[in-house]
Amino acid sequence: LGALLLRGAAAERGSLAAWWRALRREPGARLMLLVSVAWGLTLPLDKMGVELVGPSRHALVLCAGIAAGTLLLLLARRRVGGLAIGRRGRLLSLLGVSILVSAVALVLQLLVIRVALVGVVEAVKRAVGNVMALLLGGAFFGEAVGWKKVVALLLLVAGVLLILVR
Questions:
Q1: Rg (CA), the chain
Q2: Contacts of 114 (CB under 8 A, 6+ apart)
Q3: Using CA atoms, how far apart are residues 114 and 110, in angstroms rounded to an integer?
Q4: What angle do CA 42, 164, 156 make, to 5 degrees?
Q5: Exposure string for 48-75, b = 16+ CB within 10 A, e = fewer
Q6: pLDDT in tens, 120-155
Q7: pLDDT band at 84 (very low <50, low <70, confident <90, very high)
Q8: CA 141 centroid distance within chain
Q9: Is there a contact between 62 and 103 (Cβ–Cβ < 8 Å)?
Q10: Torsion over CA: 107, 109, 115, 118 (sign)
Q11: Is 117 helix (H, G, I), strand (E, B) or coil?
């Protein structure tokens, strides 16, 4: 319900039928559904990988796969120039911070899925991620944070709590 409200906040008239029509018209809706399914598969697959080879080797394979996939995509689109970082210090700093944050997040996730249920990890990760996305989207990008988004976010967090208390 929370996710429906988030997307429904932008739909005309705010009804469920209007939300559904807007979702079907949205050019990236089907692709986003595939993205959601793919991300939903990652944690169970990560847990299997960590159990088979350990967190260090699994992280290495993940990072190598991401790098190879990105390079292949750039080559296929003839945009290898996109790899050029440039001379701007700010860009290099941002890239460095992004890599560091991603590496820490990946290592912590791989460690926690060894001792926690995948569903619990995913639920907590999504709840915290949604809160951070709403807060940081407003702070860094000036994205609107209206009451519908706050209510939707509270519903998502409540759903996580329900998962945790089973």
A1: 19
A2: 47, 50, 51, 55
A3: 7
A4: 75
A5: ebbeeeebeebbeebeeeeeeeeeeeee
A6: 888 888 888 888 988 998 898 898 888 888 888 888
A7: low
A8: 17
A9: no
A10: negative
A11: coil
Instruction: Check: pTM over 0.85? Answer yes or no.
Output: no
Token couple for 37: 């399914």
Q: Which candidate, 95, 116, 103, places its Cα nearest to that of 43? A: 116
- Give the type of residue at 101: V
pLDDT over 90 for what percent of the chain?
Answer: 9
Residues 6 or more apart whose Cβ sits within 8 Å of residue 164: 120, 123, 124
Burial of 3 by CB count in 10 Å (0-12 exposed, 13-18 middle, 19+ buried)?
Answer: middle
